[in-house]
Amino acid sequence: MSEKDQMSAKKELAIKNMRLAIILGLVAIGFYAVFIIFYW
Amino acid sequence: MSEAVLHDDHHDHKPYGIGRWLFSTNHKDIGTMYLVFALIMFFVGGAMSMVIRAELFQPGIQYVDPQFYNSMVTVHALVMIFGALMPAGVGLANWMIPMMIGAPDMALPRMNNMSFWILPFAFTLLLSTFFMQGGAPAGGWTMYPPLVLQLGDGFPYLVFAVHFLGISSIMGAINIIATVFNMRAPGMSFMRLPLFVWAWIITAFLLIAAMPVLAGGVTMLLTDKYFGTAFFDAAGGGDPVMFQHIFWFFGHPEVYILVLPSFGVISQIIPTFSRKPLFGYTSMVYATASIAFLSFFVWAHHMFTVGMPLTGELFFMYATMSIAVPTGVKIFNWMATMWKGSMTFETPMLFAIGVLFMFSIGGFSGLMMGITPVDFQYHDTYFIVAHFHYVIVPGIIFGIIGGIYFWLPKWTGNMYDEKLGKLHFWLSTVSVNVLFFPMHFIGLAGMPRRIPDYNVQFADWNTIISLGGFVFGLSQLILVWVVIKCVRGGEKATDQVWEGAHGLEWTLPSPPPFHTFTTPPEVTDATAHS
Ligand code: HEM
Ligand SMILES: [Cu+2]
Question: Which residue stretches of B136-280 are H helix?
Fold first, then answer.
């Protein structure tokens, strides 16, 4: 694989990781917020 | 993921000095920091338990005033659960998961650094409350209102410490999920993952579901105290029992968050020293997932005595009983793994077998307390203290210690001192039973938990319990000695370390280089664990 492909594959993986992290983070924050609002 | 993606050889140098640790993004260094932090907190929490046992050595008030005694009980639990057990589990995950799945590091290394460094910060907040007006938290680790609201200046520190601990463990959990989902080496399918990794994925989902609930609960405590809300204040239309529901909706999954990594560790150890593959791999995965799922439907077994409707009591009784089924599957699978294996009994195996026997003792007392009418007698007595210490100390801590002995030669490149390891195991095992078994008796006889003084009828057993406690506490110094000795030298370990060890982590040199699997390995049936 060329240097360029390597870089883009690396970037793709980083994006994939970040996307999953953000989704899971939002799920956690969502639980927290919905929970408090629910009992308001 | 192609082979070349992770190939990266300009990163071979190790950073040095304090910066190596402060700014670390390396899963091995961060794993080490988690483990060292956990060990320190184990001794901080342990020192508090020594104060408790000294005070309870005889009836009457001897050494500390009751308020401080209550702080000891409360902070001991918080430190042990959030400072020792959880970080130790995450430390093992950090070290082992990338090496087990053939990944170069955790998926989000900078977040990994942050998850760790939040911990010392949060514990500084928590422990600083000892020096404040009104003292440290003293209303129990369960933080029930209205009692907890009587805490003085330390109260917001308690709440924010819990928030930070929650944030740290959620970030850790996200990192583990992202790592296992996105970073597995080619060929490492989910059903080829070592059970330790499986245990951790499931734990990570539990963390993401449970920690926000705790954070929400303590936020509501905070607003009740300072911002005029009345979530838990009956005078304002709230309900203090509601907090108990919220707390235990977090609290019961939390106990499985603590125990599943330990189960994962012994699922690695038992096959290794039985020289057989794990019996019932698939059923093990499903049993672990079922335990995790069911753990969200049993919370009210902690509050049978609050006056729930009968249907509620029945539901939570049966739900609690049902958890015994997948747990039984796991116990039987471990036993079947040992069956007709050519077993040897090195220290990690001894600790793993200790988990099997003594976790089961705690599991059985759990079942007893799960029977609603019976729990009316046991609730808030020493019987429950006996129960959760059996599941936590020989069930969870022994698993973690077993993992430390198991992987120490891999981490350091040196074998630990087997004689000292065995001494540590036997002293711990005898003393832990002297410490916790008689608590069943005094509990059944009616001694309440969380009190600094007691009726003279309980005096003899309490003296024996305290003696067991002191021996157990001192025995743990052997672990420190073994670890230091092993880090400094000793017989060189081979790459495989243990004759029966299989899996990617054992193909790496001992100690593994700073960066591993920068080129992902190809995993086949032959090189996979199962
Ligand atoms: C996974 C390992 C386990 C851990 C770490 C654990 C931990 C705990 C803890 C910390 C408490 C006390 C909470 C408090 O009031 O401060 C507790 C209580 C209880 N546990 Fe467990 N437990 C475990 C397994 C089980 C099992 C398997 C069962 C039943 C099948 C069970 C049933 C109970 C019940 C019914 C209580 C409430 C007792 C009462 O308040 O009267 N536990 N457990
Ligand atoms: Cu429970």
Answer: 154-182, 195-226, 240-274
